[in-house]
Write a structure and sequence with these properties.
The protein is an all-alpha fold. The chain has 2 helices and no strands. It is extended, with a radius of gyration of 19 Å. It starts with 18 loop residues before the first helix and ends with a helix.
C-alpha cells in the first residue's frame, strides 16, 4: 500500500451529551438477571426495537 492509497483515520468529534440517555442509565437495576429467559427477553426487545426503527425508516 502506498501513502496515496492508505486510508487515513478521520478525526471524530464528540457531540453534545444526551441528557435523556444518561438519565435512563440511572433507571437501570443494580443487578443483572443472567438467566436464559432474561437473555431471550432482551433479544426480543432488541428485535422489536429494530423492527420499529425499520418501519419508521420505510415511511
Amino acid at each position: 500500500m502506498t501513502d496515496e492509497t492508505r486510508q487515513r483515520p478521520v478525526p471524530v468529534e464528540s457531540g453534545p451529551v444526551d441528557e435523556e440517555r444518561l438519565a435512563a442509565l440511572d433507571d437501570l437495576p443494580e443487578t443483572v438477571d443472567a438467566s436464559t429467559e432474561a437473555f431471550a427477553a432482551a433479544v426480543d426487545d432488541i428485535v422489536a426495537l429494530h423492527e420499529d426503527l425499520l418501519a419508521r425508516l420505510a415511511q
